[in-house]
Write a structure and sequence with these properties.
The chain has one helix and three strands, in the order βββα. With 71 residues, the protein is of the alpha+beta class.
């Protein structure tokens, strides 16, 4: 899972059967200025997700789920 917040991004790998958290990672955008540059958000999201997947030592599945604050 990935959580893109106002000041950082968090990622976690969860086993699909047991829902056990296998690994977690956090990346920072720097200081919060009220707006972020989309390319900076995307770069940090990819970097954090990659770090989390590598730490899990598991092959990622292709299942994705999307939720936002309105869900």
């Amino acid at each position: 899972g990935i959580d893109i917040g106002t000041t950082n991004v968090k990622a976690m790998v969860v086993e699909s059967d047991s829902l056990r958290v296998v690994s977690q990672a956090t990346g920072n955008y720097g200081s919060f200025s009220g707006t972020q540059e989309p390319s900076e958000l995307w770069f940090e999201t990819k970097r954090t997700a990659r770090k989390c997947i590598e730490a899990s030592r598991q092959e990622p599945e292709r299942d994705l789920e999307y939720q936002d604050q309105r869900d």
